[in-house]
Design brief:
17% strand; 30% helix; 728 residues; alpha/beta; eight-stranded mixed beta sheet
Length: 728
């Protein structure tokens, strides 16, 4: 697949200059370590070009992981006319989400994925082997100073081992299978400097929970984070993996720790464990040495030590955040939001009763996490009325924890064992939160409805706090936590400095439209006065892996977790629309707040809106993964902080987003209409009764996005490319 020529044009968005690749022009161009890694995996760059933040580049990542969503990717792969995997060593299939589902339908789905993998020679890990992200780290697919992507939002986790991990969507995965490449826009760079050392009993989970709560105004939204500072040295690799994993919830597209002595020593230990998998012997015995692991081996580790990769001293960042670890006490996230974090000693005084506790997920179910929970649980029992669910991050983790005795300690205390996999974290299988229940979990997300009923309350905390809460029956600290060794209970010390971006233009250019793209989008305006309206709210997780749901079916459940009446409202308005005539595209225009579409990588959040009759979404800003899904599937996204502000002031309850309209309605329908010109970016909103209007200036989508829209999305574009190559 070749990149459309239009992607080389500059498109200013916010204050970041968009360009194809930055020219070195005979001088050294300073780069961050993340930019240097991306440079290694960028293809088709003119000689002398240096990759910088904002560039659109073609990338050929080391690996691409898909999990239960491999089934839909196979469908996309077949539908675009592809017949073979471009590079069978690049994809990795890991079945991990719906592993509790033993129905014939799901087992047949899993079997078909395995058959496809065997046919094409792709590495395949069956249900029960573990969560894909953990498997990729254990088996070296995610490796320091490499670029590995996954069709899952928590691929950020790979940054814990110095690998640039970033999420893609299903259509991108199909493109990678077919061509080995896909397009990517290098995010803005943010430096997060960690200073000091954590007090005893404070963990990496507390760090990221506090970061999400302290910097909760989109400071790192759609950014690539580079963790630096003397505080990093004292963080073990498991803590780094936890922090990197939840940079997704913080809003970032990557979170990368340095390749330092701590990491290299950790890999030495990993290599030693791998060598114990086989018989070893002295050279004089005549028995051949054990086979070398294809990805984690002495040669690669020696090469890492010999060729140190780090940021240039004059590398450019959009922001510099400083966080003092020594001022941090244990924190708890929630309820039902990662942007709200509270010091544990404060929350403990409230004696918040729980009915369920969870030690599951790729965030905090590694050997050290299970050991921490077991240390708290030893000699105790799960409180009456509390269900405590445990699932190891992988079969290898469960085996090692079993050998250490920690797994049996948890079972003896009353924990209920689930298979290695995602399970409750994604809202699948047994043990979900019921209406009115409260749960505390060591997972990464506590969005409303994600782990069960929308009217349940979910909190996030470290494994030790989860275990202690399961014993007491309310959110509390473990008995081993010595308050005398903790810093004062107060907000942790942090600071932020924003670095002015290089010059960019904010003027809207009057460019010709790509042939076949609408000149105007017009229709009724619906307003969802909510910031951070996440993908669970747009398309509930319980439908995500039901692959037989049609687009019509998606339309019927769109926005169900946010507003159950939304789908019916849009369906009624859709009856009056006329078909696209090549100029005017009619449909409902949805306007919402900031960071619209944050959360998981499920592309149904975009396809369901489009299928329902929403061809255009206007927001203050978008979650980058959602925006990518939208572009790849022909849903147009525009930003207008001014329009969002005006609608909030006029129609939101108390003039603030987050509590619905003035009458408490979640979707505001005041009979407004809107017409958006895609050539000049002029959007005119008319009120229902008076016909009064106001015009706003928006930046229309560029020709590259228009071309994808006309082709029916990235899938259609790739089909055209394959057909063109076949004719050549």
């Amino acid at each position: 697949m070749r990149l459309p020529a239009h992607l080389a044009r500059p498109h200013a968005r916010a204050s970041l200059l968009r360009h194809f690749a930055t020219a070195a022009q005979g001088r050294r161009v300073p780069q961050t370590v993340i930019e240097k890694v991306v440079q290694k995996y960028a293809v088709g760059l003119p000689q002398g070009k240096s990759v910088k933040a904002g560039d659109y580049v073609m990338i050929r990542p080391e690996h691409v992981m898909t999990h239960d969503n491999t089934g839909p990717v196979i469908s996309k792969f077949n539908s675009i006319g592809a017949t073979k995997i471009h590079n069978p060593a690049q994809p990795v299939f890991t079945l991990d989400h719906d592993v509790q589902n033993k129905t014939p339908k799901n087992l047949a789905k899993y079997a078909s994925i395995e058959t496809f993998a065997r046919k094409h020679g792709v590495d395949f890990y069956p249900a029960g082997r573990g969560i894909g992200h953990q498997v990729l780290v254990e088996e070296g697919y995610a490796f320091p100073n490499t670029l590995t992507v996954a069709s899952d939002s928590h691929s950020n986790m790979y940054g814990g081992v110095g690998c640039v991990g970033t999420p893609i969507v299903r259509t991108d995965a199909a493109a990678l299978w077919a061509t080995g490449k896909t397009w990517w826009q290098v995010p803005r760079m943010v430096k997060v400097e960690l200073k000091g050392k954590l007090a005893p009993g404070v963990t990496g989970k507390d760090v990221i929970v506090a970061l999400c709560g302290s910097f909760n105004r989109d400071e790192v939204l759609n950014a690539a984070i580079e963790f630096t500072g003397d505080g990093v040295t004292a963080l073990g690799v498991d803590d780094r993996l936890t922090i990197a994993n939840m940079t997704t919830e913080w809003g970032a597209l990557a979170g990368v720790f340095p390749v330092d002595d701590t990491l290299l020593k950790w890999y030495d230990q990993v290599l030693s464990k791998l060598e114990l998998r086989t018989f070893s012997s002295s050279a004089s015995s005549g028995i051949p040495p054990p086979p070398e692991h294809p990805r984690i081996n002495r040669r690669r580790l020696d090469a890492l030590r010999a060729a140190k990769l780090e940021s240039d001293s004059d590398a450019e960042y959009s922001s510099h955040l400083v966080f003092d670890l020594s001022t941090l006490v244990p924190h708890v996230s929630g309820p039902n939001s990662v942007k709200v974090s509270t010091p544990l000693p404060v929350l403990e005084d409230a004696h918040i009763a729980i009915q369920k506790a969870y030690l599951v997920s790729c965030t905090n179910s590694r050997v050290s996490d299970i050991a921490a929970a077991a240390a708290v649980m030893k000699g105790n029992k799960v409180a009456p009325g509390v269900e405590f669910y445990i699932a190891a991050a992988s079969s290898a983790v469960q085996q090692e924890s079993g050998q250490l005795g920690d797994w049996d300690t948890l079972i003896t205390a009353g924990a209920k064992v689930l298979p290695a996999g995602c399970g409750p974290c994604i809202g699948l299988g047994v043990g979900l939160l019921q209406e009115g229940e409260t749960g505390i979990s060591a997972t990464n997300r506590n969005y409303k409805g994600r782990m069960g009923h929308p009217k349940a309350q979910a909190y996030l905390a470290s494994p030790a706090v989860v275990a202690a809460s399961a014993i007491k029956g309310y959110i509390c600290s473990p008995a081993s936590l010595d308050s005398a060794k903790l810093p004062p209970v107060q907000p942790p010390t942090f600071s932020i400095s924003n670095i002015p971006a290089s010059t960019s233009t904010s003027t809207v250019s009057d460019e010709p439209l790509f042939t076949g793209f609408p000149a105007t989008f017009t229709g009724p305006l619906l307003f969802a006065p909510q910031d951070n309206l996440n993908t669970d709210g747009i398309y509930p997780g319980k439908y995500t892996y039901a692959d037989d749901i049609t687009l019509e079916g998606q339309a019927k459940v769109v926005m169900e977790n946010y507003d159950p009446n939304f789908a019916a409202l849009v369906a009624e308005k859709r009856k009056a629309f006329v078909p696209f005539d090549g100029v005017r595209k009619e449909g409902v225009v949805l306007v919402s707040g900031y960071n619209f579409g944050t959360g998981s990588s499920r592309e149904q959040a975009a396809t369901a809106l489009k299928a329902a009759g929403v061809p255009l979404v206007i927001a203050g800003s978008f979650g980058d993964i959602f925006k990518r899904n939208a572009i790849n599937n022909g849903l147009v996204c525009l930003e207008s902080p001014e329009l969002v502000s005006d609608l909030t002031e006029r129609y939101a309850k108390d003039g603030k987003r987050g509590a619905g309209g003035k009458n408490g309605e979640l979707t505001v329908d005041m009979g407004m209409t809107i017409e958006v010109g895609m050539k000049d970016g002029k959007a005119t909103v008319l009120t229902a009764n008076t016909g009064e209007g106001k015009t706003y200036s928006l930046r229309p989508v560029g020709a590259s996005v228009q071309e994808l829209w006309v082709a029916g999305g990235l899938e259609g574009f790739i089909l055209k490319e394959i057909q063109a190559e076949a004719k050549a």
